[in-house]
Task: structure prediction
Amino acid sequence: MLNAAVKDCPVFGGKVKSFDAARISGMRGVKKVVQVGDSGVAVIADTWWNAKTALEQLPVVWDEGPNAKVSSADIAEVLKEGLDAEQAFVGNKAGGDVKAALAGAAKKVEAVYSYPYQNHACMEPMNATVRWTADRCEMWGPTQNGEGAFAQVLEASGLPPTKSTCTT
Result:
């Protein structure tokens, strides 16, 4: 069994510009270094620890893209514009006319809060077990997006859905 450790661009929307696999190819247990999509790299090794240790030493150059310069103030401004927009989508008007109620209020209290980088970490461990042969691919792993995981299994294996399973 092989293990992989993955590193993704630290800036949302960024991409891998380059990485130097030769720098870690001789490290203990390292089997291969691969690019994962446009934004990540993975080190595949005989143990997770060897993969993780090698990944920490892998020189990666990122193209952080336009989001590299986005600040918390920029995000707060976009959110404020959305909240203040006259043409905002309203899904439910059962509560009455908010603007009229606020205009007629005897006292108004206002507070501004911004928490743009809330932690949305998975509650389950980020791992998976895959058994892949020439004619079958099976994946077991915890995920909140079974359909997305199955799509990735199909893409990676190149097999049809009838020859693949994804147990989450």
Summary: Residues 128 and 141 are 4 Å apart (CA to CA).
